[in-house]
Amino acid sequence: MDRLLALVRHGQSDWNLKNLFTGWENVGLTEKGIAEAHAAGKMLKAAGLTFDVAFTSALTRAQHTLDIILDEMALTSIPIIRDEALNERDYGDLTGLNKDDARAKWGEEQVHIWRRSYDVSPPGGESLKDTVARTLPYYVSEIQPRVLRGERVLVAAHGNSLRSIVMVLERHSRDTIVKREIATGEPIVYRLAADSTVAETLDLTA
């Protein structure tokens, strides 16, 4: 039984490139982001992997990334489940602001706290703790059971929603998870044990 789970953050978006807080805004992929998605699909295929079902968020940049990956892998007929539980963290009043402009307005220290603390949320937005509270129950109820049944599952989502899942899989504390970077377009592939813990993290570069 494979119990295979692959997590992929969407490719670079227009607002990533412009250094803007994106959150729940629907923005497209850059040319680099599209290339990253193609590379992720090629990497997964070259590793001999395949998937039975895919999950993604309600946001187009993750959906577009997933579509490109599945096309590269010739898996366009597998079921795709979209849910806003996998959306990026909501940055509230910071959404659409340049990160340097936000620092000028609120100060370097305050913006750093909003971005990198676990449980302090920006005005009108979500903290990482809030994102975990939204994403993790969905993972436990909808994604994890499929993996444990032996289905091979691909999830294309966002830095903070994936960080919420990685926090549990890699057993991070609230202090270490905020330092765990998840790069755009680079698959993280786990093989789970029967008790839902990580049995192996696959090295796709080998």
From TrEMBL:
Pfam families: His_Phos_1 (PF00300). The active site is at residues 10, 88. It is an enzyme of class 5 (isomerase). The keyword Translocase does not apply. SUPFAM superfamilies: Phosphoglycerate mutase-like. It catalyses: (2R)-2-phosphoglycerate = (2R)-3-phosphoglycerate. Substrate binds at residues 9-16, 22-23, 61, 88-91, 99, 115-116, 159-160. InterPro entries: His_Pase_superF_clade-1 (IPR013078), His_PPase_superfam (IPR029033), PG/BPGM_mutase_AS (IPR001345), Phosphogly_mut1 (IPR005952). GO terms for molecular function: phosphoglycerate mutase activity. Pathway: Carbohydrate degradation; glycolysis; pyruvate from D-glyceraldehyde 3-phosphate: step 3/5. The record marks 158 as: Transition state stabilizer. Keywords: Gluconeogenesis, Glycolysis, Isomerase. Belongs to the phosphoglycerate mutase family. BPG-dependent PGAM subfamily. Catalyzes the interconversion of 2-phosphoglycerate and 3-phosphoglycerate. This is 2,3-bisphosphoglycerate-dependent phosphoglycerate mutase. It comes from Microbaculum marinisediminis.
